Amino acid sequence: MPFRVRRHLTAGLLVLVPLVITAVVIRFVFNVIDGASQPLTERLVGRAIPGLGLVLTIAVIWLTGLLSSNLVGKKFLELFGRLLENLPLVKTVYTASKQLVEAVSPGGRRAFQRVVLVEFPHKGTFALGFVTGNGIGSLDASTLSVYVPTALNPTSGFLIFAKESDILDPRLTVEEGIKLVVSGGVVRPHGN
Fold first, then answer.
1. What averages of pLDDT result for each successive group of 10 residues across the chain (192 residues)?
2. Residue at 191 is within a domain
3. Contact predicate 35/54, CB 8 Å
C-alpha cells in the first residue's frame, strides 16, 4: 500500500474514532433515557411522543453539566460517586473510567504530571511515559512512578519505577504526549 494512501487512512481513522466513540456513548445514553421515558409517556399521555427521548437526553446532559458546576451539585455528585465506588462490580469500572477522564481532561485533576522518555522494555529503546508520582516502599526518594501506555489504547500499559537520573525530557505537554500515544506516533507535536 502506498505511503500516501496509508497516511490518509490513518488520518481518517484519527478523525473518525473519537467521533464514533462519542456517538456510541450518546446513543447509549439516549437509548437508556428513551427506553425509560416511552412506557411512562404512554401510560401518562396515552401515546408515545416522537422526539421526547432526544429532548430528555439533551436535558439530562445539560442538567448534569449544570449540577457539576455549582457547589451543591458538586457535593451531590461526590456523594453519588462515593456510593458507586462502594459497589463491588461497579467500583472497578466506574473508578477506572473516572480516573482516565480526569487524567486527560483539561482543568481536571491531573493524574499525569509530565511526559518523560524511559528506557523500556530494554536498554537502548525508549518509551513515552507519564510521571504519576513518586516511587513506593523501599525505593529511594529519587525514584518516580511512570505509566507507560500502549500505543493506540492508552487505557492499558505498564507501571514502571525509574530513577529521575535515568529519565529524559522530550519537552512535550501532557496533551501532546497523549496525542502521540493515541495516534501511534502519527500526530506529531508542532516543531518536531
1. 70 69 81 87 85 88 85 86 84 73 58 90 92 82 89 80 93 87 79 60
2. no
3. no
